[in-house]
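Run log, item B.
One chain of 88 residues. Sequence copied directly from the ordering sheet:
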Amino acid sequence: MEAMETRIAVIGIIVEDMASVPKLNALLHDYSQYVIGRMGLPYQKRGVHIISVAIDAPQDAISALSGGIGRLNGISVKTAYSNVVSQS
């Protein structure tokens, strides 16, 4: 079995449209094998939810997840990558 190169990243998500949450959760579930941890904060004062997801995955999986999230209505996403690369 060939080792796969992975990167650590944090995906920052701001949810403004709660109707998109089921699709967001489905995407995160599809990539759950790579998720290190997830933290969600409801910000009642501004009517948004802030989610951060730590992930250790191949570059293409991180990009696909982030891109899929970015296509959801009322959701903004940004990804920050670590310079740490590992073989898994």
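Observations after the first pass:
- The radius of gyration is 14 Å.
- The chain is about 25% helix and 50% strand.
Flagged for discussion on Thursday.
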